[in-house]
Amino acid sequence: MKTAVILLYGLFSPERSDYKGYFDFLATEIKDKNIEKVILCGGFTNPRVHDKSEASTAKDYLLSIQPGFTNYILEEKSITTNQNLEFARENLSKNDEIIVYCDLIRKSKVIWISMHFLLQADIGTISKAFMDFVKDKDLYKEFSYNNLKIIGYDFPGKSRDEIIGQSYATLIDVLALYSEELNKMDVSQRKKDFGLE
């Protein structure tokens, strides 16, 4: 089954024009690529809106612009990228053709984390696939390995601070895959960032 795993970045609201652009792009991808199932990844990250998850607000908007497609699965337990992909795996089968959609500046960590959780690949396999991808220096293209593809969406207007911040977050998230202590620290910090603690 052709399945999209969509990583989310906060509750959807139409006022966020950059985020709306991401969803409009996703709606086109779902149609053009004949995607059969969509897993929307994002939990309850806004303490001011207790009854809405990132995934539920994404589903509402996608249904409003493309009512003909309804096969959405909400992954609402996660608050980190690692958790997004770890919990998405629960809704995948071995034979699924998987396309992960993410923010382009997070693509490097999404490649690594997706291979770790969705393909259950070891460090050596991930490292080789990663190096093969980056050696031709066309980092905008889709990443492809076996039944997994990663597509990054270039959100407009990213600030220098956001880009630098993501470079640090990438390192922490990947290392947290291999250290329970760092993973706990990462989750705890994310909860503080969201105001959940």
Structure report:
This is DUF218 domain-containing protein. This protein is α/β, with parallel strands linked by helices. It has a single domain, classed as Rossmann fold. It is 47% helix and 16% strand. It is built from 7 helices and 6 strands; from the N terminus they run βαβαβαβααββαα. It has a 6-stranded mixed β-sheet, sandwiched between helices. Helix 1 (17-32) packs across helix 2 (54-65), helix 3 runs parallel beside helix 4 (107-118) and helix 4 packs parallel to helix 6 (160-176). The longest helix has 17 residues, at 160-176. The model has no long low-confidence stretch (mean pLDDT 94).
Summarize it:
This is DUF218 domain-containing protein. This protein is α/β, with parallel strands linked by helices and 197 residues long. It has seven helices and six strands; from the N terminus they run βαβαβαβααββαα.
Percentage of residues assigned to helices: 40-55%
- Sketch the major β-sheet: 6 strands, mixed
Listing every helix as H and every strand as E from the N terminus to the C terminus, the arrangement reads: EHEHEHEHHEEHH
Give the rounded overall mean pLDDT: 94
Total number of domains: 1
SS summary, helix count: 7
> Alpha-carbon distance between the termini?
39 Å
**Portion in beta strands:** 15-25%
Unreliable sequence segments: none
Protein name: DUF218 domain-containing protein
